[in-house]
């Protein structure tokens, strides 16, 4: 069993800040940072990110989605993406229990436990650009020859 920076004990367990029974308000900055995006662009960004997307919350009533990032992943004031904003530390986010994945209130679009979204990839996806896929690193079976 491993323990990552968000407090997961395994990929199936929710972090300690995800309630088990009812929705609670959790401040940004301690367990996560959050980017709030208009639903119209967030849906497309979520599709672009695919399995590389970390936890995402949606609220149909306010038409807002929240992409949760690791705390400190972005410098305050460095987020400039149309239709979205990086929320300030201390901003309260409604966090529902992990079993709430549909409905009109706040719900999980992507559950916690699969890792986090890279903020740079999120920025590209919100701008409609597909983030570059990581170049696989290949190991050479031969030792490098010394330079002369």
Q: How would you describe this structure to a colleague?
A:
- It is a single chain.
- With 148 residues, this protein is of the alpha+beta class.
- 13% of the residues lie in helices and 22% in strands.
- It has helices spanning 39-49, 119-126; strands spanning 24-27, 33-38, 56-59, 64-69, 84-86, 92-95, 106-110.
- Helix 1 (39-49) packs across helix 2 (119-126).
- The protein is globular and about 35 Å long.
- Mean pLDDT is 82; it is low at 1-11 and 134-148.
Would you summarize the structure shown here?
With about 150 residues, this protein is of the alpha+beta class. About 15% of the residues lie in helices and about 20% in strands. Helix 1 (about 40-50) packs across helix 2.
List the helices and strands and how they pair.
Layout: E1 24-27, E2 33-38, H1 39-49, E3 56-59, E4 64-69, E5 84-86, E6 92-95, E7 106-110, H2 119-126
Antiparallel strand pairs: 1-6, 2-4, 2-5, 3-4, 3-7
Name the beta content range: 15-25%
**What proportion of the residues is helical, as a percent range?**
10-25%
**Strand arrangement in the largest pleated sheet:** 5-2-4-3-7
Number of DSSP E strands: 7
Mean pLDDT: 82
* Oligomeric state of this protein: single chain
Give the end-to-end Cα distance, rounded to a whole number of Å.
48 Å
What's the SSE pattern? EEHEEEEEH
- Rg result: 18 Å
Number of helices: 2
Class computed from helices, strands and strand pairing: alpha+beta
Shape verdict: globular
Main sheet makeup: 5 strands, antiparallel
Taking pLDDT < 50 over at least 5 consecutive residues as the criterion, the unreliable ranges are 1-11, 134-148
